[in-house]
Design goal:
10-stranded mixed sheet; 12 helices; alpha/beta; 10 strands
């Protein structure tokens, strides 16, 4: 029989493309969950104050009292904790075989594609194409703090032709991948994490007026068709809304998360070799910080450490601790500084 599942809570805001990505993953797997709408800019007291999670990027997903940060880790965890063996759809469908189905799944390659290409090569170009000149000063100030540099709307507008031609080159790569007439990106039996991770970038960019001429059906017919096909597939799933239990306030969400049961830390484990490399010990106070942007540390006791993820114990005003998880790749784990410990 399937293992009883703890409550799932998604912290999001509607304009977040990465939140849309995770919503699509939840829709594919048909995982019932609550949603908490948070602000597009800091502060976000529903996370930082109530749960002690100062990680500044969105989305964040709680499964029981385990709180997962970064969409790449969220995808891997959803597959592990809601496995196909228990009736959930997979995010890693098998590749088609010549003349039939039943091939193997490229899980490691897909994870690398999503983290290294979709999230960190393609998406930043999409973000550079936003109409920053139309945003209010408080939004620009928040995003400047996020990126760690001043946002100059005029300079970004002047660089638009360069960014657009790079995006055209990315579309050419996509066109090459789809040139054999395959239905899904890696010629799988169904759309999976690879499709979702690349698609959300292009679907988001299709909303930008400045990029409309980029989506030229004459130049990129297979790519435009794949984007439309994936959008239609996801729209049908999301229209069912069978996975969305309710939209709830942060106070209720904090009570649900903090009163739920956490997964046994032994599932992730504690890699003594990697801990020694980092000069860390279990239960030591550490801080975990993204290495690229949004460099706000989250501080807590080190609970688990593997080659894929790290978990720390945090506690907010709700009064009960939660386990906050981060990917190992693109995140720095180190002993907490005095300044970090005050966050």
């Amino acid at each position: 029989m399937p293992t009883p599942k703890p409550p799932v809570v998604l912290y999001h805001y509607d304009a977040s493309p990465f939140a849309t990505k995770v919503k699509n993953l939840l829709a594919i797997k048909q995982i019932p969950h609550y949603r908490v709408a948070v602000s597009t800019i800091l502060p976000r007291p529903d996370l930082s104050d109530r749960l002690g999670v100062t990680y500044r990027r969105i989305p964040v997903l709680a499964i029981g009292s385990d709180v997962y940060c970064d969409s790449s880790l969220i995808a891997a965890v959803l597959e592990r904790r809601f496995p196909p063996s228990e009736g959930y759809s997979t995010l890693f469908p098998a590749r088609k075989r010549a003349g039939g189905s039943g091939g193997t799944a490229d899980t490691g390659l897909v994870k690398a594609l999503c983290m290294a290409y979709a999230d960190r090569a393609l998406f930043p170009l999409a973000a550079e194409s936003l109409p920053y000149g139309r945003f209010p000063p408080e939004f620009l100030k928040d995003r400047a703090a996020w990126l760690g540099k001043t946002i100059d709307p005029a300079a970004m507008a002047a660089n638009e032709p360069t960014v657009k031609t790079w995006l055209a080159s990315h579309l050419a790569l996509l066109e090459e991948q789809l040139a054999d007439g395959r239905e899904w990106l890696l010629d799988t039996e169904a759309p999976g994490l690879a499709d979702i991770s690349v698609h959300f970038c292009w679907a988001w960019m299709q909303q930008f007026r400045s990029l409309r001429d980029l989506f030229d059906r004459a130049r990129f017919p297979a790519s435009i068709a794949w984007i439309a096909r994936t959008s239609e597939y996801l729209a049908k799933l999301n229209a069912q809304r069978t996975a969305v239990l309710d939209n709830i306030p942060g106070v209720r969400a904090a009570d649900i998360v903090s009163s739920a049961v956490a997964e046994d830390p032994k599932v992730v484990g504690f890699d003594a070799i990697e801990a020694a490399r980092l000069g860390l010990k279990q239960h030591q106070l550490v801080e975990v910080t993204p290495s690229d942007n949004g460099k706000v540390p989250t501080v807590g006791k080190l609970i688990s450490l593997s080659l894929e993820e790290v978990a720390i114990e945090t506690q907010g005003t709700v009064g009960k601790p939660v386990f906050c998880h981060f990917p190992r790749l693109n995140f720095v784990v180190k002993p907490a500084t005095r300044a970090g410990a005050k966050l």
